[in-house]
Amino acid sequence: MNNIVLEAKNLKKYYTRGVETVKALDGVDFGIKAGEIVSIVGPSGSGKTTLMNLISCLDTATSGEAQLVNVRRQYIGFIFQQFYLIPNLLAVENVELPLIFARKPIDKEKIYKVIETVGLKGRENIPAFMLSGGDKQRIAIARALINEPKLLIADEPTGKLEIKVRDQLLKLFDELAKKGIAIFIATHDLELADKTNRIIHLQDGKIIPKEQSNLYH
Ligand SMILES: Nc1ncnc2c1ncn2[C@@H]1O[C@H](COP(=O)(O)OP(=O)(O)O)[C@@H](O)[C@H]1O
Ligand SMILES: [Mg+2]
Fold first, then answer.
1. Which residues of the chain have pLDDT under 70?
2. Cα separation, 35 vs 183, whole angstroms
């Protein structure tokens, strides 16, 4: 069985800034399998967010493709760096939002189950603004999971989190991966990356071998 979930082929994204062309992604190839946790690391400006945006269809490639294999586009869940919760809505209401946008039935049992999955059972009725940073992120993950994605994408998920919260997040990702969800994390946090199944090094829009990465020296 071919269990590839995502495959990028010679993916390029060029931006034009005046007369200058910025090669944000310059021919990127990789694949991710079901149940795999893969991190993409690289310095600021190396193209990580551009790549995440292409995969999630927030942006279009200049050429090449990031193809979802046997997965429909709606089966991607996203966790953004800033979480983007609606502060005045309850935790549970934030998790409901994707169902409302997709005009799907609001299945309370399913929502409570997802909140339990991320370890926030009992905190469903707290307004988002009153949650801690780590709990906000868990709600953002629950919201990403509500449509039962096959691929979970997180752009800099540990940017503002303490080490303890980071370890809890990795534990949660491990549990999700065991259920067959592929997880793709963009980060400049090498300690986080080291705990994932595989690291892809990105520099100046290109995948490079670890030895050439200037993050290690
Ligand atoms: N909308 C844009 N217009 C022009 N240049 C951009 C745009 N978005 C990103 N870039 C450039 O593309 C490169 C990659 O940026 P980005 O994907 O945000 O990197 P990272 O997430 O690794 O920090 C950078 O040089 C950045 O300045
Ligand atoms: Mg970025």
1. 1-2, 70, 72-74, 159-161, 217
2. 7
CB distance 83 to 37 below 8 Å: no
**pTM score, two decimals?**
0.89
Q: Which of 78, 196, 204, 195 is nearest to 144 (CA)?
A: 78
SS3 164: helix
| Distance, CA of 179 to CA of 103 (rounded, Å) | 26
Would the CB of 50 count as within 6 Å of ligand 1?
yes
Task: Return the number of other C-beta atoms located less than 10 Å from residue 36's C-beta.
Answer: 21
- Ligand 2 geometric centre to CA of 16 (Å): 18
Any ligand 1 atom below 6 A from CB of 53? no
Pairing outcome for strands 206-208 and 63-68: unpaired
State which ligand 1 atom lies nearest to the alpha carbon of 205. Answer: 14
Name the residue of 25, 50, 208 to mutate for ligand 1: max ligand atoms within 8 A of Cβ: 50
Phi, psi (5° rounding) for residue 169? -65, -45
44 Cβ closer than 6 Å to some ligand 1 atom = yes
pLDDT tens for 31-81 read 999 999 999 999 999 999 999 999 887 788 888 988 887 676 668 888 887
C-alpha distances in Å from residue 75, one per residue of 62, 70, 144, 150, 170: 24, 10, 10, 6, 21
User: Of the ligands numbered here, which is closest to the C-alpha atom of 17?
Assistant: 1
Q: Which residues surround ligand 2, an ion (CB under 5 A)?
A: 48-49
